[in-house]
Design a protein that fits this description.
Elements (H helix, E strand, L loop, with lengths): L4 H37 L3 H10 L9 E2 L16 E11 L10 E12 L4 E11 L2 H4 E4 L2 E7 L2 H21 L6 E6 L14 H19 L4 E7 L6 H10 L7 H4 L12 H4 L4 H5 L12 E2 L13 E7 L4 E7 H4 L2 H17 L5 H10 L3 H17 L8 H9 L2
Parallel strand pairs: 2-7, 7-8
Antiparallel strand pairs: 1-9, 2-3, 3-4, 5-6, 8-11, 9-10, 10-11
Length: about 400
């Protein structure tokens, strides 16, 4: 045992005191946020106008508001016969200490049919990547611009493959009311990083949106993504704009030069408060919040797939459910997404059962990784190729880490 708990026991006790004090302050801020929310219910038009003039001038990302905030939506009745489709992914990373430059992405696919003809199909599709074009990305407009494959690009590639797998699954499914479900956000946040070259951003978006295009063309199909224990603050950030004393909020102009110990006027109602905190007391089991629109700059290129979201009382937790614009603007698809997401959570005892099964199909266990690299070494040796892993990789394998 290398961790001496007796040496950090005092620090843990101090953390407990700090968290207790912070919880009390957090409850006070939440009360103020709820009060501000109630005040805005009376007339949202002034806030909408203030949000418009503040666009691009605030350091957070307030939600777009299209519905009255006092609306809550009861749980719709699901169809008698329906499908739920889901995909999830896992991978074996590209490792510089490994015997060969390669990586693997495994996509779990699940199709669950309920109603008159219940059925289930569970599978996985593993893909090995080892060619130069899989390891080095080349700018098609400048062949001298090369980018080596890394963990962030792998995450983007896996997201594309999950969406493509979902579109493939839906394309071959029976034509009954269906929900196509992904885990996590539909917003590819990693595309906003400065380290992502424009040509990579374009290629990723083109492939991802092509999969969403195919899904949008399937009749009676709703698409959604499920976010458990959401930490988002889009709606709370709209309250920040409401609380700002300036008629045209501008963080750089009015708050940039404050002292580190100074709080901003909007912190009074928003600091440490999440959207889920705001909606938890407002929604009964199965009910959903109004629909909001994400204003992430990444979504400017999403076309008809811009991301909207609502909060759902899923029983044990308040979840965030994201849908593309073509679902948000179709009342029947939106009702279908609401009904079937909650149905899945209920069957999964707190988490969508189709996503749980897709994860089980996709997951690559530690033993699988060891067997994979052992097979790679064996094949390389049979081909008389240099295949020995580095000493660091071998020591990890021996220790079982």
């Amino acid at each position: 045992m290398t961790l001496d708990l007796t040496r950090i026991a005092g620090q843990i006790e101090a953390m407990g005191v700090h968290l207790s004090q912070s919880a009390g302050e957090g409850r006070q801020r939440l009360d103020r946020a709820q009060t501000r929310y109630e005040r805005e219910l009376k007339d949202l038009d002034p806030l909408r106008a203030k949000l418009d003039v503040s666009r691009g001038k605030v350091t957070w990302m307030p939600a777009g508001i299209h519905e009255q905030w006092d609306k809550t939506y009861p749980l719709p009745r699901p169809p008698e016969d329906f499908l739920v489709l889901a995909t999830d992914g896992s991978q074996i990373d590209l490792e510089r200490h490994a015997p060969a430059s390669c990586y693997l992405i495994n996509i779990g696919q699940v199709m669950l049919r309920y109603g008159n003809q219940p059925d289930a199909s569970l599978s996985s599709q593993a893909s090995l990547f080892y060619r130069n074009e899989d390891l080095i990305l080349v700018d098609p407009t400048n062949l001298n611009q090369l980018v080596s494959f890394d963990a962030k690009i792998m995450k983007l590639k896996r997201g594309i493959m999950e969406a493509q797998g979902l579109a493939d699954l839906a394309g071959g499914a029976p034509r009954v009311p269906s929900l196509a479900l992904l885990d996590g956000t539909l917003i590819m946040w990693d595309l906003g990083g400065r380290d992502i070259r424009p040509f990579i951003r374009d290629q990723v978006l083109e492939a991802f949106l092509e999969a969403l295009d195919r899904l949008s063309q399937i009749p009676s199909l709703a698409m959604a993504s499920y976010i458990s224990n959401p930490r988002a603050t889009d709606v709370v950030d709209a309250l920040r704009v409401a609380e700002c004393p300036q008629s045209e909020p501008n963080c750089d102009r009015y708050c940039r030069y404050r002292q580190p110990s100074e709080s901003r006027p909007c912190d009074h109602v928003a600091e440490g408060v999440r959207d889920a905190d705001l909606f938890r007391p407002r929604l009964g089991p199965g009910e959903r919040s109004p629909l909001f629109e994400s204003n992430s700059r990444i979504l400017e290129s999403y076309r008809e797939h811009k991301v909207h979201f609502f909060y759902l009382n899923a029983g044990d937790e308040l979840a965030r459910v994201e849908v593309p614009q073509w679902v948000a603007r179709d009342p029947e698809r939106l009702k279908l997404a609401h009904a079937l997401v909650f149905d899945q959570v209920s069957r999964g005892q707190g988490y969508p059962v189709a996503l749980m099964e897709a994860h089980e199909q996709a997951v690559v266990q530690a033993g699988d990784r060891q067997a994979f690299w052992a097979l790679v070494e064996e094949v390389m040796a049979e081909g008389h190729l240099h295949a020995s892993a580095t000493s660091k990789a071998q020591s990890k394998r021996i220790r079982g880490t």
